[in-house]
């Protein structure tokens, strides 16, 4: 009887320490000083991109720190700083969520750089570059606060993300303001298929 109890206890301990991926989320730039303020993250022509408009891309950070899109594509960091999309084996590790921001190798600052008339996500400032700070928005329209690969939980802010400045709201839809300060119809949706990038940085 003692042996059985020990086995059950061991199994319970192992199950409680199983590593897990983060919750699914959409990504939106909420840097009010950026010309890309309100843009969301998508994929286009093999790159991780930013664009205006509704986005159905579903993102997730895996338990080994890779950024995954729609369960099929992975962010692959290039030597020029940009992120391309590729398979799981080629996906780059180092992603996490820190204080409501997407981080790569501990850095929450990204850039949107112009490439082939598209705003491409990058860790290096480049042509027509603009600083980007990405907030992960969960399926219930709350920002994810923290996720560290190798842990087994994602913390979520229970207050719905504000639509302008620092004001909080109970709205069920996450919307953002345009760079001019007027309301924008940009919406982050975390269900559905991928979306093609159509807007480039100025």
Please write out the topology.
Elements: H1 2-16, E1 25-29, E2 40-44, E3 47-51, E4 59-61, E5 67-69, E6 73-77, E7 83-86, E8 95-98, E9 101-104, E10 110-115, E11 118-122, E12 130-132, E13 134-138, E14 144-146, E15 155-156, E16 175-177, E17 183-187
Q: Could you characterize what this model shows?
A:
- The protein has one domain: Trefoil (Acidic Fibroblast Growth Factor, subunit A) (Trefoil), CATH 2.80.10.
- Helix content is 7%, strand content 35%.
- Strand 10 (110-115) and strand 11 (118-122) form a beta hairpin.
- Residues 6-17, 158-187 and 189-202 have low confidence and may be disordered.
- The termini are far apart.
- It is built from one helix and 17 strands.
- The chain has a five-stranded antiparallel β-sheet, with no helix packed on it.
- By secondary structure, it is mainly beta.
CATH topology: Trefoil (Acidic Fibroblast Growth Factor, subunit A)
CATH class: Mainly Beta
Strand order of the largest sheet: 2-3-11-10-12
Using only CA atoms, what is the Rg? 18 Å
Average pLDDT works out at: 76
Tell me the helix content. Answer: under 10%
Q: What is the beta-strand fraction?
A: 25-35%
Shape: globular
Can you summarize the main beta sheet?
5 strands, antiparallel
Low-confidence stretches: 6-17, 158-187, 189-202
Number of strands: 17
